[in-house]
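Retro notes
What went well: the complex prediction finally ran end to end.
Inputs used:
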Amino acid sequence: MYKYSVILGNLGNTCDRFCKGYKDNPSTEEMLAEAVKIPHVEGIELVGTWDIRPDNVKDMKRRMQDYGKTCVSIIPDVFTDKVYGKGTITNNDPAIRRKALDYLRKIGEIALEMDCKLVNMWMAQDGYDYLLSTDYDQKRDWLCEGTAALAKEFPTLKFALEYKPKEPRNFSFHARMADTLLAAQETGCDNVGICIDTGHSFYAGENTAEAVVLAKRAGNKLFHMHFNDNHGCWDDDMIVASVHSTVYIDLLFQLKKTGYQGWLSMDQYPYREHATDAIGESVLWVRRFEEIVEHNFTEIENLIRKDDAVETSRFMRKALFGK
Amino acid sequence: MYKYSVILGNLGNTCDRFCKGYKDNPSTEEMLAEAVKIPHVEGIELVGTWDIRPDNVKDMKRRMQDYGKTCVSIIPDVFTDKVYGKGTITNNDPAIRRKALDYLRKIGEIALEMDCKLVNMWMAQDGYDYLLSTDYDQKRDWLCEGTAALAKEFPTLKFALEYKPKEPRNFSFHARMADTLLAAQETGCDNVGICIDTGHSFYAGENTAEAVVLAKRAGNKLFHMHFNDNHGCWDDDMIVASVHSTVYIDLLFQLKKTGYQGWLSMDQYPYREHATDAIGESVLWVRRFEEIVEHNFTEIENLIRKDDAVETSRFMRKALFGK
Amino acid sequence: MYKYSVILGNLGNTCDRFCKGYKDNPSTEEMLAEAVKIPHVEGIELVGTWDIRPDNVKDMKRRMQDYGKTCVSIIPDVFTDKVYGKGTITNNDPAIRRKALDYLRKIGEIALEMDCKLVNMWMAQDGYDYLLSTDYDQKRDWLCEGTAALAKEFPTLKFALEYKPKEPRNFSFHARMADTLLAAQETGCDNVGICIDTGHSFYAGENTAEAVVLAKRAGNKLFHMHFNDNHGCWDDDMIVASVHSTVYIDLLFQLKKTGYQGWLSMDQYPYREHATDAIGESVLWVRRFEEIVEHNFTEIENLIRKDDAVETSRFMRKALFGK
Amino acid sequence: MYKYSVILGNLGNTCDRFCKGYKDNPSTEEMLAEAVKIPHVEGIELVGTWDIRPDNVKDMKRRMQDYGKTCVSIIPDVFTDKVYGKGTITNNDPAIRRKALDYLRKIGEIALEMDCKLVNMWMAQDGYDYLLSTDYDQKRDWLCEGTAALAKEFPTLKFALEYKPKEPRNFSFHARMADTLLAAQETGCDNVGICIDTGHSFYAGENTAEAVVLAKRAGNKLFHMHFNDNHGCWDDDMIVASVHSTVYIDLLFQLKKTGYQGWLSMDQYPYREHATDAIGESVLWVRRFEEIVEHNFTEIENLIRKDDAVETSRFMRKALFGK
């Protein structure tokens, strides 16, 4: 079985663009105390600035140790600061590009201090909104240079680029698995890879299970996994299996087959739900799907060789209902 | 439990716009002989011209009786004749409008002869492709007049308008549940109602379970149900539950709660699959979901009153995995 | 030519779900002083609580008079208060339903005081997120009752229901034109109609020009218009014509043909743009499209009767390029 | 100005999956006689088997010479033969993989005979329909091997992989620009590149103008261009600019800026339109957009450096309306 983790901020107050959140906002310490109680969760992802800053690194490290939990990743906060509204390391303004890179370096140092092996880079503002207003080539140069500079300065860290087709920008540079693999390749750095967020992938048009294979073929580039579900056209950030089922089984099968070594992390926005319960549900669903793959690995291998939708349907009925 | 049926043509050669089909095309009689063997299937839908014509009504009626199966609906073929390329009863040409209405009348007569209670009207060509090229108001007048004329001439038949957002036209007049209810209301005829095709509904943006409630509120207007699945953006016409799960349970719950009295009919395009096996799988999946609703009706009633996604998730895990 | 207006809040700080806005937040008075300078703008829409409250009604009324501008609508703020997170007049909690209705009544009174003829009801929280967790029928009863109660208490006001397929909820009850017409009909109130937001309509799957005709056929139910553009899959709230062109001409033609009497109001989220300039651009685009319709009304009437995509294409080339 | 071409088959009878076409089917010779009359068209694309076979190569070559037109590409017909229903060079059956490769070789030889420089490979059947039924990794191995074998045997030909997210399969292996670049890279062959079909790209979620830049960055991999338009969610294969406008200008600007050397070819399915007129309209639209780019190249360069949506909007108004 894989190891499971959660993003700490998912336990807090998640807002939308109209309402500043439907809950009270607990402190980082309160959220951590709750997160560690979720069954099967052995690791935590921390968002820079929100959860982790130079001033609280020591304290957070001690707390994580006391709870016996691993710091799975640090996620740089490059999405809440308005200065990055038109891009971080792809901003037209060189001063902002420098500021962004300096901030990312600081996150790298924090990751080292926390004995955290992975920086999860969701470059949310690096994209564009309108057509005929962006020098795509220039901006991709800057994206490549900034990412490579960072990766080279921290050779012992892994940098996982988390892709998403849109939001907050109308188009992201890291949009889908294949685009992001091309961007990772351009850096020439072995320690730059990819993070799949299942929900981002579901509404990107790609098949998430196939995306795992693309990453494997490009040189074992899948570094991290975020789990959630949605209705297929937007990042609804829902409990796993609220909408889909088969795709998770195909995905977990391909993770195992391609030798994925990372964590399975839950990433939801439980706007109106009890946060730990909603996240805990996702853990239980993913584990159930994982069990199906564990118990039927050879049978699934045969299925995917047969390419017979009727056989697949029969297997799914048996897997879900036992008959 | 509901009664199950299949559309006969689904057992034949289903083509796409590039390839004229991936199978041999069996005769109507051969397909019928196969269809009646699918477990739990008690009724058959026949497509006009393909399966049923004035010249073979008597023969088909006798065959159905011999097999002990019900003729659940006749589906007028208003989609394969090129003369209807720019519309049937909404065509700009009055001669074509008349021809279409005459053909629909003939189908009405065949339905009466077959002791079939329902004409399933998929008005596939009644829509448009380009913007700024259609007199929407005029065409909707013709749509209403033609439908009303037919419904009044056959007061003992039910006419179910099957909606679909697009294909073969880029926009259909009967696009979603709500549009089609408005169209049905305009006719002023009690015997004009709606057919939901789950796949059409899935890629129309609406929630199929809620569509059932809209039809109920408009005066018990849900006359018929077609089942299949897709990946959420097109009419892939796949085996039920290949992609989705929860939505079928919500749908079957609402069917029961609103007192749906019709058939559950399978409607797929098993392009590359063994047809009867693929259709048989759909029957088994729908029945499994139906059992879940039967065995947990009161619990689901409580769930939908509670509006707690965590409870719903727990229920789904239990319903699917028994734990 | 139609009269043009803007929503005041569009000039302020528009945030997304990650960043609390990319601008400073000017005061209502500052925004008003800017809005009235946008060329061709004769009216203003005010959002309840943000812009207009019992304590500033008199002041705002005087300011609008001094500027010589009309208060085109009041938009109740039922989307920023967390108490309405699971619905306003459709909330499971009767106390919240009452509170919501009381708030809406207060907005009705403010509208009367402001000599404003229209309340624009975007019932953003009245929907649901998860399947199998909502009593659709019960909630639609409450939606109908609340809307009808309000409309009857304020018979001299018009209430425009603004539809949107999703966001902030994963599904809205007022989702598309046809659903919302059914909801308006259920109230039995002549003063309940519809507001089209072009962007909401673009990503709802419907054709906006046809939606105008649906509203006309249901009894001249189009009460109000919001303009913006998007990339077709989300409410990007962009400058008009950033992406689309033909659809606006078809839309403005149908507005004229169906005798629309209301305002054309701009509704954008210029997150990273200069607000008044971005809104001013939309005004100029809509006016350009309006001119095309004015100067070619009879020719367009012929086009839509002909149903010839080649003729439509030729017309568009001539209309846009003059050759 | 670029050189313009058309796909010959677009002048014929284009069918959908329900109706076997809305027109009569002219002969190849008749279509060619019509195609050469479309203003500005200097080249023709021929579909293997439909238009060009070993038995008519000499005749077609002479006809093209007589008309003074270039054979721009040969498109292998790997989409109409039912034997390829579950894949051509990715078929699980080695005999079918061999047959497909042999057929592609024959097309390579025909291309050489026709002095045609490009084979346009739309590998329509190489994908899959159902989840949990495909060995993605194995099939991508075969895809790579087959493509590389072909490219190496014909080192003087260019092979353009035309991507499309789905149809006829629910998922294509060559789905979007980035996936297809990765596939091209895997072959290690310089003469394997990409064909953009604008309509495929529009409904793939990517920005077509940015896709051009991705191809350039991967080593000038854009070999060919197909033009058409759609409503944003399906391959409607409509006249250019029926729906979109700005995206074409951004696209043509990026083509020029990245030094694209190929043809601009029209690829439509004028199901119900007069074929040559509909295709001729697309040519005129693309040329109009090309003129805008030609006349304003430096201004657009400044625009894309500025990243100011208001400036872009002003430019578009001026470009389209001259004021």
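What we learned: The beta strands of chain D are 4-7, 41-47, 70-75, 118-121, 127-128, 158-162, 171-172, 192-197, 222-227, 264-266.
What to try next: split runs per interface for comparison.
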